[in-house]
Write a sequence for this structure.
């Protein structure tokens, strides 16, 4: 099990929180909340060790487009990068709902 | 032509049906409660999660796999607890078990003071979480005690939809419910098929034989032999309606299944351990509603 942290700059305030997904086989849970300091903070708890570079690629790509200031906790149970991207997109969509 | 029309109507019903099985625990709770009344207690952002799993290298889910919510059923105050089967097989750990037990005990306090809360349990669980062992078992015992205390005031309604089913100590919790709703996909049993095969050998039970397993512990069999009260298709609206109906029709005076000791002793006496018994024969012996 590994805990990985990332920080990103952000453009605008987010006021809602969104929860999607489940810590099930090949899936992950995303908890998205307003950031306390105007920057974006991501904590990844993953059951699979040694994929830090892959996580960074996926998150860099997501936050290149998503500019909200959020604190995100990811609880991962072996999701593929595609599934991670879909869950993040689902969480972002939840903000617009 | 009539056959075509009937077939088309059948297809339409099937396509328009909302599957309850395919919903996660939170969606199931929303599907049962009156629309717009869902209010979650100890939700994921409260982060009341298992302290034990990370110590064993397992990522913990923020709600420990149990969704608790208050809301209403036909306008009456209700409490629903649902177990998320995709997380650790819906297993009961210290926290997930305590969430259910604590919620039932609070509902009990309210009921005892004359404020009726309708309790609903949406089971989908392999039973105790092995990584938390006795702490999970203790919580399951508290759930049993709370159901027994609560059902003196109000029916306790359980649902087993599938596909995990309901096993171990939580199968006892399901059996203690005043009214139990199952689908044909549900399974209800103390030991899961894999455990029986592992302990007693493949001659006793082949855990890969799905038809055999469902003929023994599947929803249809459990309903036919009187262990479940409603057998429904996998249809969220039908299940939500059956939960409401159970509260309006469950007889307060009839003794709960677990109180009918003599009846079940008599039923057990009809079995001959020396004769092989299959699901069909048990149905004939223990036909639903048959007197002892």
């Amino acid at each position: 099990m590994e805990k990985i942290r990332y920080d990103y700059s952000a453009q605008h305030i987010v006021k809602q929180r969104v929860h999607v997904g489940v810590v099930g086989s090949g899936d992950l849970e995303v908890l998205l909340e307003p950031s306390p300091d105007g920057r974006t903070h991501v904590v990844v708890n993953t059951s699979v060790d040694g994929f830090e570079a892959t996580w960074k690629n996926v998150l860099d790509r997501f936050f290149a487009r998503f500019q909200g200031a959020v604190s995100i906790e990811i609880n991962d149970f072996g999701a593929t990068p595609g599934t991670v991207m879909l869950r993040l997109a689902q969480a972002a969509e939840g903000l617009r709902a | 032509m009539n056959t075509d029309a009937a077939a088309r109507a059948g297809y339409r019903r099937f396509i328009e049906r909302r599957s309850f099985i395919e919903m996660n625990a939170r969606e199931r709770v929303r599907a049962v409660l009156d629309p717009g009344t869902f209010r979650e207690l100890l939700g994921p952002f409260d982060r009341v999660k298992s302290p034990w799993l990370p110590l064993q290298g397992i990522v913990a889910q923020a709600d420990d796999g149990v969704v608790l919510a208050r809301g209403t059923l036909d306008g009456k105050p209700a409490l629903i607890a649902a177990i998320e089967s995709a997380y650790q097989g819906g297993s009961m750990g210290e926290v997930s078990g305590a969430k259910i037990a604590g919620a039932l005990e609070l509902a009990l306090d309210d009921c005892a003071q004359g404020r009726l809360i309708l309790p609903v349990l949406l089971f989908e669980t392999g039973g105790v979480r092995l990584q938390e062992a006795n702490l999970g078992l203790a919580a399951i015992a508290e759930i049993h005690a709370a159901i027994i205390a609560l059902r003196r005031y109000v029916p306790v309604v359980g649902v087993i939809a599938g596909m995990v089913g309901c096993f171990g100590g939580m199968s006892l919790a399901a059996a203690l419910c005043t009214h139990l709703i199952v689908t044909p996909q549900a399974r209800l049993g103390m030991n899961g098929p894999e455990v029986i095969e592992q302990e007693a050998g493949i001659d006793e039970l082949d855990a890969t034989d799905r038809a055999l397993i469902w003929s023994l512990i599947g929803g249809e069999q459990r309903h036919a032999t009187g262990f479940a009260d409603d057998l429904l298709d996998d249809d969220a609206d039908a299940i939500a309606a059956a939960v409401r109906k159970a509260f309006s029709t469950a007889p307060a005076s009839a003794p709960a299944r677990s109180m009918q000791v003599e009846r079940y002793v008599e039923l057990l006496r009809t079995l001959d351990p020396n004769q092989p018994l299959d699901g069909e024969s048990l149905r004939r012996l223990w036909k639903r509603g048959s007197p002892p």
Summary: Chain A is about 30% helix and 35% strand. The two ends of chain A are 33 Å apart (CA to CA). The CA atoms of residues 41 and 71 of chain A lie 5 Å apart. The helical segments of chain A are 52-65, 81-96.
